[in-house]
Amino acid sequence: MRAGELRGILKGRDFLRLYGTRLASQLTDGVFQVALAGYVFFSPERQATATKAAAAFAVTLLPYSVLGPFAGVFIDRWRRRQILVWTPVLRAFLVLLVAGLVAGGQDGLGFFLGVLVVLGVNRFFLAALSAALPHVVRRDQLVTANAFSVTSGTVVAFGGAGLGYGLRRGFGAGHDGTALILVAAAALFLLAGLIATTLPKGLLGPHRAAEDVETGAEASAAPRVVEVIRGVLNGLVDGGRHIARRPQAALALGAISFHRFLYGVVLIMTLLLCRNHFADGPDKGLETFALMLGVSGAGYFAAALITPLVVRRISKQAWVAWQLGGAALSLLVLGMPFAERPWAVGAFLLGVVSQGVKLCVDTTLQETIDDEYRGRVFAVYDMLFNATFAAAAAAAATWLPPDGRAGLTLLAVIAAYAAGAVAYRTAASRVRRPAHALR
């Protein structure tokens, strides 16, 4: 990451406002997710298994990923600033409802449905952030802006996880303590919405939608549900055709989906290892899992420093291939012993890979997708990002042991990463690089 270019980006007042909105929301995401993880996986009265872990991830990830295309259609119609203002407010209200369920000791269908809605609403927020970024920085600054904002946002989310863990130590691990953590998360979500109000109206687009508002084109009555669904399906077809005409974008989406599936298997293994192998109790298990997340977050930060420098020399496509190959090597050397310290080092390196690949994919999409399609494409991107992870969790649940030690599974992941690196590099070399793409 070039310091001079970053200083130029940070001088942009609108970028800083968008960036502040991201940080406040992702800090809260970390608090919220630790509250849920502690309540579902690391409560003293609950025993974590691969099946339970997969069920929890499926409930919280797979269904709301289906909202991706719907989010994209509306993001391409609504002012993105308004989405960034009101989505955190809605999430705060929903989190308070979930806190009430937790305080009442409910952890059944109603609880998971509440969590599902909270996370589902976040699709609108994250997709709007990605679609809005090109409106606050120049095209030639996108690689650095992505590296800085997305990665530091992720690091802040890990910091939020640490904050959530500290609140858990203070409030307690029971129902009441978890409910208090969720109340704190609701207050932080409101802060994110407040920061978003400082962004100028109409700045973030979509410009066509803004022009329609000014000319009264959106003054018609609200469409019926059937019309909305038809519009979503038509929008998906249009978005698919748009991507099909841009092979770089299609290949990037394939790479991130492939990586997320394999990463999902490794993360489920990590959770089970921390809960039932590396530690001798749920509290110690949560502490160990938090450590793994922390070192992984450090890897995300390292990727932000490395990726902009590397892609200016070897291209984004080559860097993705090298990272997939690096994931295979690191898991082979550090993962197979199933020991805590080597696994933690592997978590750091896999964090570098995860964020490095994501930064390349984000920038590729922002460079190759037209503005009026960005909301739909990034919403589908979010859908794939989470659906492949949930699918990995569901698949792994059928064979992973309770303590997470599965040598054959890890070897299969290693082989898949290695094969994926070769396949991606071969495919990328056949795709003509756009003339305006950054190196």
Describe the structure.
- The protein folds into two domains: 10-207, Up-down Bundle (Growth Hormone, Chain: A); 234-430, Growth Hormone, Chain: A, CATH 1.20.1250.20.
- 80% of the residues lie in helices and 0% in strands.
- The chain has helices at residues 3-10, 13-40, 50-65, 68-75, 80-103, 109-132, 142-171, 175-196, 207-215, 225-244, 247-276, 282-314, 316-335, 340-368, 371-396, 407-430.
- The two termini are 13 Å apart.
- Residues 209-222 and 434-439 have low confidence and may be disordered.
Summarize the SSE layout with pairings.
Layout: H1 3-10, H2 13-40, H3 50-65, H4 68-75, H5 80-103, H6 109-132, H7 142-171, H8 175-196, H9 207-215, H10 225-244, H11 247-276, H12 282-314, H13 316-335, H14 340-368, H15 371-396, H16 407-430
Helix pairs in contact: 2-7, 2-8, 3-6, 3-15, 4-6, 4-10, 4-15, 5-6, 5-8, 6-15, 7-8, 7-12, 7-14, 11-12, 11-14, 11-15, 11-16, 12-13, 12-14, 13-14, 13-16
Membrane topology: Multi-pass membrane protein
Transmembrane segments: 21-42, 54-76, 83-103, 109-133, 145-167, 179-199, 249-269, 289-311, 318-339, 345-365, 377-400, 406-424
Keywords: Cell membrane, Membrane, Transmembrane, Transmembrane helix
Tags for this model:
single chain; 439 residues; mainly alpha; Growth Hormone, Chain: A; 2 domains; 16 helices; globular; disordered C terminus
